[in-house]
Amino acid sequence: ARISGCSFKHSSRYTYLWNTVWFTKGNDNNPDDLKTDPAYAGRVSYSSDWKSYTLTIRDLRESDSAVYKFRFETDWKYFTGLPGVTLTVTVLQVHVDTSSYPDSATLTCRGSCRLNNHLFYAWYKNGQKISNQSDQYWYTDNLNPSDSYSCAVTGHEDFSSPSVYIPKLPSVSVSPSAEIVEGSSVTLTCSSDANPAANYTWYKEQQPISQEKQIIFRSIWFSDSGKYCCTAENELGKTISKVISINVKCDSSSLLAAAVSTSQSLQHMSSKIAGHARRQEVKQHMAGRSEEENRHNFAPEVFGKLLFWYFR
């Protein structure tokens, strides 16, 4: 977009024109030249025709709405045009209403500032002007997933609104893309090109689990394995992504540590059971002898058995 014709006629009493500045920020004594403002980088130019000075802004944006002032400096004084020129940039948008019928929509062409009620509008479907509509600010049509719509003010068709359309097929990404190991951090992201912007829902095994654009597993577990997909939805409709499979591998170092720990526990338990059984056997052996036999024979026989158990 381009706007031109903002000009200021200055007095001819100066002897030498030192500098000219267009500005929206700063003050009369210290203006911020638009040419040095990053927000206007590469989009502004100044031109003059005798006593008329013009500011041209290309690629006009809604954020360019402001009060523009012109200042020129001579070798003896500076002058600023007050109160300045007010520029209001309106951005057309198509609003969608599907509350009346589920398969049709009422589209409304609106601006970011109030538009003249007597304006006429042009409607576009898939980039082609709709010929059978009555120049109204609204338009009703049956919805089709492949269709897009935009509007413009008649006489200014070059400045049409952005198109509105159903979300495109969502793409699903997994980060990192390498093998997923239990305990690692994993992020699933759902993305779709849509206008109005899409709302997302994640599913695992066909059950909804999140309404965020991303699912972040800080420490993923084997139980998180499964089939995942997401949907993207706006006022015009819903689309669903392809299904992806998440396979979480067990950490081999953890398995080894668990196996060693289990083996040690089993050895300790086995040793305790064996010691208890030996004590019981000694008691039973001693119970079958007389007190006198026990006094005379306990030491050599029992000592022999203990040596046998120890070295076998």
UniProtKB/TrEMBL annotation:
SMART domains: IG, IGc2. Pfam families: Ig_2 (PF13895). Residues 83-167, 170-241 form the Ig-like domain. It comes from the Eukaryota. This is Ig-like domain-containing protein. It comes from Haplochromis burtoni (Burton's mouthbrooder).
